Amino acid sequence: MHPQNPGTTALREPGSKTELFLAFNFMALQGVGGVLAVVQNEMVERRRWMTRVQFLEEWSVAQIMPGPNVVNLCLMFGGKYFGLPGALAALAGLLCAPLVLVLLMAILFGGIADLPSAQGALRGMGAVAAGLIIATGLKLASALPQNAMGLLVSLVFSSLTFVAVGLFRWPLAWALLGLGSVAMAYAYVRLKRSAIVHHGDSA
Amino acid sequence: MSMVLSLSYQDWLNLFLQFASLSLLGVGGTITTAPEMHRFLVEETHWLSEMQFSSSIALAQSAPGPNVLFVAVMGWNVGLNAGGGLAAGPPAWWLGLLGVLLTMMGIMLPSSILTYSATRWAHRNRDMIAVRAFKAGMAPIVIALLVATGWVLTAAHNDAARDWKLWLLTGLSCLWVWRTKHHVLWLMLAGGLLGALGVV
Hints:
The complex is a heterodimer. Chain A is mostly helical. Chain A has 2 domains: 8-146, no CATH class; 147-203, no CATH class. Chain A is 74% helix and 0% strand. Chain B is mainly α. The longest helix of chain B is centred in the middle third of the chain and has 35 residues, at 90-124. Chain B has 2 domains: 9-119, no CATH class; 127-196, no CATH class. Chain B is built from 8 helices and no strands. In chain B, helix 4 runs antiparallel to helix 5 (90-124). Chains A and B meet through helix 1, helix 2, helix 3, helix 4 and helix 5 of A and helix 3, helix 4, helix 5, helix 6 and helix 7 of B.
């Protein structure tokens, strides 16, 4: 029932803009503490709109472009299948219902913000959200063996980035521009070399 | 907690422009520009109190939906403050919605236009080696950024004697999500409950 390796099972495509709207609505409403974990699970494992490798690629782009990551991802995904209307349908799905909900919560919370139990609940949910984000990273790491740079080099770049951002608290832009550009240059050389080797027989 | 501001047209415009100017800086997530928002909204203009600012972020984190909605909550609170607080009735609510509209449009429009057009281009040229190298090179970085984000959130609670239960909760949540296919919503509810009861 649950495919262990979504990379090898048949992929589907979203059928309509309505499906996009509803799907992103559904994902957004499930995504407490950030939507990424849910989006990854839903798009890759449940709906099989893309493989883990594809998701990671799309997510990398969404991450490095300015703006909210999940918003970028849904603009890109909607745009890929239905152009601008598709992008807007996905975006509306992502934002509308959660926006109403969060404002209602703000109104309610305004009255109880000072209660220790309300603050405790935020604390507990924050701890869960942190675990969720880490787990999403670990899940996506399963796509690294297919990376053009090779598993070992990929892991080196991952470790360096973690140390820089997680332990030394470098600004994100440094990590993205510094380590990112070195990694991209290396990937470029690798891809270029394999393109020359396979010249003629690659599609 | 409520305060009364009087905001001119110029102020509303500035609110929009401030968020629009941050839009293109939010590489790696809008939350990375939160320190700059704090400087503007709390320290410079005093449109939000310290408490309103931090609870806007915490609330949006614990609500369903994209994290960027913390910006909407900030806009809402600025508008409410301008209208004399929630209790002041519909005029304040409308100003709250105006705040939501201006901050969200500001933070979303520039980055969305850029992302949409740039990625359409990249998709048409997806076989170019440069485009493929970009994606392959960024993948391990992005994975590490996710893990680092979770780590930074956890390490913010740094008193081992008191916070080990929070760390344990984070670790177990991570394993649960990584290794099982159960729904994360239950986990969130459990976390909220444990916190509300004072267990963690």
